[in-house]
Amino acid sequence: MRKLLMHACCAPCFVYIENDLRKNGLLLDGKYEKVEYTACFYNPNIHPKVEYERRKNTFKDFCAQKKCDFIVIDEYDLNGYIKYVVENVGKGKKYSYRCEYCYYMRLKKVFEYAKENNFDIVSTTLTISPYQNHDIIKKVGKKLEEEFGIEFIYIDYREHFREGQKMAREFGLYMQKYCGCVFSFDDGKWVY
Length: 192
Known about the structure:
By secondary structure, the chain is of the alpha/beta class. It has a single domain (3-187), classed as Rossmann fold (3-Layer(aba) Sandwich), CATH 3.40.50. The protein has seven helices and seven strands; from the N terminus they run E-H-E-E-E-H-E-H-H-E-H-E-H-H. It has a five-stranded parallel beta sheet with strand order 5-4-1-6-7, with helices on both faces. Helix 1 (11-23) packs parallel to helix 2 and helix 1 (11-23) packs across helix 6 (161-171). The longest helix has 19 residues, at 98-116.
């Protein structure tokens, strides 16, 4: 049985996917394959720190409740993220879009962990969100697949987004109102 490391952006986005993995396995080319899966929380750029802690702890509590294998790479680095974005994102720079760097930075760490711990496959819960750029997620995943020699599986879970949100509410999970970084926080003009 192959080993999957599933990057989890948050518990509400993981709840439907975890249920599907547990019941059916991983959907590959229209067929399900049973896999041994571990969820991985790595989201060091969530703002503010209290929000990071809420999302991390909600993820841990959900995984413990479901008896799901999980790891947390607990590296909070908002300042490093902001500095990198300012220096490397924009017209004529290394990354055209902030989200492209965000996906790359988080998934690269997940691939590193997967390589060090003998996982065969990497995927991400980002693909359940209709608010994420799926083309860029696929592009970043394939780039990292080539770099690390570990298969990246893209599954478009968007049709299950509302169902997943309903499941998250039923579990009583903390439900955030923005993507996570200081830029998405500021875009929404949130008062915290």
